[in-house]
Structures are given as structure tokens and as C-alpha cells.
Amino acid sequence: MEALTSLIGGFSVLADPMNIVYMFVGIALGVLIGVLPGLGGANGVAILLPLTFSMSPVSAIIMLSSIYWGALFGGAITSILFNIPGEPWSVATTFDGHPMAQKGKAGEALTGAFTGSFIGAFFAVLLITFLAPVIAKFALQFGPAEFFAVYLLTFCSFVGMGRESPFKVLAAMTLGFALAAVGIDTVTGQLRMTFGSVELLRGFDFLVAVIGLFGVGEILLTMEEGLAFKGKSAKINPKVVFQTWARLPAYWAGMLRSAIVGCWMGITPGGATPASFMSYGLAKKFSKNGKNFGKGELEGVVMPEVAAHAAGTSALLPMLTLGIPGSPTAAVLLGGLLIWGLQPGPLLFVEQKDFVWGLIASIYLGNIAGLIVVLTTVPLFAAILRIPFSVIAPIILVICAVGAYTVHNAGLDIAVMLVFGVVGYVFKKLDYPLAPLVLALVLGDMAESSFRQAMLVSQGHLSIFWSNPLVGSIVTLALVMLFWPAISAIKARMTKGTRHAAAE
Amino acid sequence: MRLALANSVKQFAAVLAAAAALSPLPALAWEPAKNVEFIVPAGTGGGADQMARVIQGIIQKNNLMTQSMVVINKSGGAGAEGFLDMKGSAGNPHKIIISLSNIFTTPLATGVPFKWDDLTPVSMLALDEFVLWVNAKAPYSDVKGYLEALKTAAPGGEFKMGGTGSKQEDQIITAAIEQKTGAKFIYVPYKGGGDVAAQLVGGHVTSSVNNPIEAVSQWRAGELKPLCVFDDKRLAYKTSVTADKSWGDIPTCKEGGLDIEYLMLRGIFMAPKVTKEQVDYYVDLFKRVRATKDWADFMEKGAFNTSALTGEEYKAWLGKAADTHRTLMEKAGFIAK
Would you say the ipTM is above 0.90? Predict the structure, then answer.
């Protein structure tokens, strides 16, 4: 009950009309940042951070966190329409979102993505409101072995199920790991695979690769197929929002699962990107429509979005209570807190009640406002697909190039993006899956360094991965996931066997 | 290139003329004619990044510059990307870089072709302190107890030191402790200072050498305790941080019998081959930044050592620091072959 009283206090902080204005400005900016690939939430917040130094901390954090919500929402838009993930965590949204748009169902996909985001965030913020002190402690149990276990679980829940040949999955994933290894090795401090080149020092950024593989690759494919968007015939119907909503309650179990995955990944802090991949993989495995995933299934759009937004929101919890950022954007917000004179940590909830509860209240309002803003734009965005391809393709290419440049302010990244575009095209043509490559590229170095940290701690004994119930159960779960196809085949045979026995 | 130069000369002349016409103040000898890129050779959210963004905010709030300052992170190769970019921008006065210890350590550890004196030193802003932290539940409460436990521990098994990055300042201090005491740590490198502090609270490592600002909240919450500070005198901040302790109450490591001093540079550099007027402009700019109240607040919050140097003194300090780093890293075997 104390939480409720504090929350009401938080809403009274928000009552200042200027704060509401900052919130809407933040969300609009955030959606824009989310839409532009490359200019991620972290960059966006970092650029705007100095502007907020003259505001009060409460107003500043409301505006900046609203940018963050807006970016979380906005990331889905280009993923669905053009197959270009605006943010790393919306990569999984492209898998079914873009096929839906090609089938003329862009409106449904966008509504599903936005609503899913909202549900995820709402679930996470309820958790923050009522369970913050209990949950915050949980993150402390995570040492290197536990982190590795979580990454392993992400990989295992994502592979070991594909329609593609396992060898192709393996080949794509290995390429991803190799690309992720370029640059500095954080464990030894040595350079790897840079071949003396200054440009390779920074490694291959995930965003640059993704913009190329998905965005540019898609444009190349479309060009080959006759310079037209497949989703051109999309009917723009304002009722689409309500029609999609009517279908969502059927997915409640999957959404609950994704929300839990998301919150868990946000708090631990694994982050929104692994959460979205993991949730997509789990949905594919457990959904009745699992075999249709990748061909334009609404469920495949909703689930990663629920998880990504739940993770993005709950990532604020370890940031506020422990000072560990759960995402790159949270890291920048953390810097902001210090500059405004707020010390994140266990005492923040005690000493800065107004600030903390004002922020939590703004998560509620910000997400409701965000949902309204983005839903009203659904018909508008869906209508973009009606613009002739020959007009929009060059614009998309320019946006991609600007995005790739923005990530590190490096001209070479534009060339890298184009090369990845060709790779993406070749992969599609040869029927190699892109998802494992992307997954390995984004999580490869994190998984590697936590594995090696764990090995340092245990002095080389693999037994550290079963050294306590927490890490042991995650690793075991991961292995079960990996061998799920085999396990379910054995299970099927056994039930068949018993049926035979019963029949005889 | 020549065209660009001609252009900037033209712009520069225009700015001068405008300045002379508009302001009753004595016109400065040189002023930026366009946006200044402020390079951070580290990722977003870290200590150097925070400082750069605070400076950007202070300059903006107090109107210390007519042009804008844009913070750009070039963190590739443990900062080598940023340093090499500066080295390649000879003569460009619209680019400055904030440096941390990686200006010395990165080239030595990775073999990247760069040395601190490739750049033009502008001024030292402050020095960042290092404190030896342990979990509040640890059985010892001073360096002596810590050192005894370290000596009796099984060789290479029990004592894990968590730190930021590999072959950077945290591991160098760890190596220095090893060299002084003959003990052996397992050094576990993490991505950022916040992670390290949380890992220490969770008991995944035995101790850390976090900067004050990275661990202060856990100290105040009673989760961590500081044993000593790696400086030659106690910190100057007397305001209570916890119920009964201030930064100034932490003994120096030397007092506890661990004779190690290590401070991390937070300084500003320009590209090679810039003119004296251009350097003077930035020296003056940062003098004014350091005079603001916001800066003083920031210094206190992070318990920084507020030493500041410019000109020859700064250069001499840098030369000495570079030698210290080389010796420490050579002894520890951290130099790239």
C-alpha cells in the first residue's frame, strides 16, 4: 500500500503542465529517433542530455525517459515497413512484421507491435512499482557464470528449431561470431583481426551490419523482383486498430511469457535485444502456429515487442537501485543522473522520493501517451507503402547511409553497410538464415567475455556453470532448449508407443 | 585542403571583424570559427564521457563559447580510435580530446602507433582518485587486515580483483599491489565501473579499485567499505558521505603499509601542429569552466583531486606519468610485443 501512496505522490509531481509538455515533446522526438536507423536511443539521449542541465532533475528525466519510450515504440515502424530495424531490439520484429507488410497487412503489424510494446512496458512498470526492492537484490546474484548462462539460453532458445538446414544456421552463426570478435578483446586488452587497420579498431557495429543486411539487402531483392512494394495494395482502414485488438486476447499466455522473459532480461541486466530474440524463439517453439513464423504471423510481431519493451522498462530498475545500466540508453541516463546531482543506488528510493516516483508515474503516463501518439499514426505510416518504390527506395537508401554514418561518425561504415547489403542479398538467394548471424554479432562478444570471466574466476573449471541452483538451472534449461527437437521427437515416439501398447 | 584552409581563414577573419565590431571586450587572438568536436576516447556513460558532457553543459549554460561543442565518442580499440583520429588531424584547431589513463596504456598494451606527445597538451582538468573497496561483510576493516588475509590466502585462488578493462589503470594498480606484496590476484576484467561495484556487492569478486563516484552509493548503503585511497595525502572533502564518515576519513594506502600512489589523468589535448594562440584559447576556456560552481559541485560529487596544470608543468607531469606507466606495465608484462 505504501507503494500506491508513493505512486499517487508521483502523479502529483507530474501534474505540472510543463512536465506533460516535456513528455509529449520527448515521445515525439523518441519516435523520430527510433525511426531513423543508427540514431539509436542512446545517441539521441546523449545528444539531448546537455540541453536538460538547466531543467529540474524531474523534468529532465521525464523528457529523456520519454525519448527512450518513444524510441522503443518507433523502432518497430521501419522494421515492419521496410525491413530496416531502427533499433537493435526491433530486429526480431522484422522476421514476421515485414512479411505481414508485404502481404498488405502493415496496419495490423504496426498495431500489434505498438500494443505489444505497451503491454510489455505496463507489465514491467507494475513490477517496478510493487516489487522494486525485492527484485533489485536479484541482479546482485548475477556473476560472470550467470551472465553467460543467460546468453547461452538466448542462443539455445533461438536455434535448434529452425526450418533451415542446421549446417546453414551454424555457418551463419559462425560468421557472426567471427565478425563480433574484430576489434579490442576486452579480456586481454589485445587487438584482434584488425590487420593493422585503424578503421577496423572499432570492430563491426551491429547496427551498421543490420542496416545493411536487412535494409539494403531488402532493397536489392525488391529491385530484382520488379521495383514494386508487395504491400502496395494495403487497404488503409482506421478500424484496423480495433480489429487487431480483438485478436490479441487469444495470445495472452504467450504475452505473459514474453513479458516475464523481458522483465527478467531487463533486470539481470541482459537487455532488450536478447529478450526480443529469446521471446521470438520461445513463441516459435511453443505456439500452435509456430510453423508459420517468418511468413507473416501476427504473434511473431507481438511477442518480441512485448519482451523488448518489458526489458527496456525494467532495465531502469537496476540503474536506479544499483547504478548498473541495463542498456546503453540507461547508461547515458545514468550519467545524466550524476550530473543532475542524483546518486543512483540503494538510497535513491529513500532520499529522492519525488524524483523516483515522479519517474515511475511518468512511465505509466508516458507509455499511455506514447501508445496514443503512435496508434494515431498507424494509417499514416501504412500509407507510406503506397508511394512508388522508385521514389521511396532512394530515400530509404539515403536514410540507411545516414544511419550507418551516425553510429560512429565514420564514413567507412557506409561502405561496410553496402557490403553487408550484398551479403544479405546473397544469403537470401542461397536460403541462408540471417537471424543467427545477427544474433551472434550482437551477443557474441558479451557471451564470449562473460564465458572467459567465468573461466578466470573458476580457474578453468566448467563446473562453475552448475555451481549454484541459479546458474545450474539456467544452463540446464538452455541445453533442454537446444535439444528440444530431439526431446520432443523422443516424447512423440514414446506416447505413440504407449498408445500402441494400449491398443494391443 | 588549401581551399578549406582559405575558407577557414576567411571565416576566421570574419569572426574577428565581427568580434571587434560587436564586443567592447578585448578581442581574443583566436576563436573557433565553427563547431568544436570534443572527442571522448571511451564509450557513452563512462567517467570520461560524463566529464565531457558536464563540460559541454557548463559551456552552454554559461555561454562560454560562441560556437557549440559537440561530444563524439570514439572508443574503438580501447580509445585508440580517438587518439589516432586526433593524430591524423594535424593543424585542426576545431577538435579537442579528453584523455584518461588510456592515453598511456592503450598504445603500450596494443602496439597502436601513437604516443601521448603526438598530441598538443592543453590543460589538466583534475585527477581521478582510486580507492580500494571490499564488501562490507569482509572480516577486515583496514589495509593491514586485507594484506594479511591476502598473504595467507591460497596462491591464485581466493583473491579476485574486479576492474574495468584489461591492461588499463585498474589492472595496473592490481599489478602494483602484486609487485609490492608478492601476492597473486585473479584479475577479472569487466566493461564498466558500475558493473564492477555491483559484482563486488554480489560477492563475485573480493575487492576492487573503483573510482569514488563509481562506488559511493554502495558505500552509503552499507554494502561496500573503503579501505584506503591510492594518493599521497587524504582526500580534501570533509562533508559526511555516510552517517559518520567523509571522503577525508579514508586513510591513504601508504598509511596502511601499502606504498602505492596512482591517480588518473583527466586532461585536454589538441591535435598536433596547432598554433600557440589556439592552445591559449582552450587553456583560457577551461580555466573559466573550472571557475564555475557547477564544476566545483561535480568535483566534490566525484571526490576528484582538483590539481590542475597547464603549459610546461603539464608537459612535465605527462612525461613523468608516461614513464611510470611504462615501468609498471613492463614489470607486469603488459607491453605488446
Answer: no
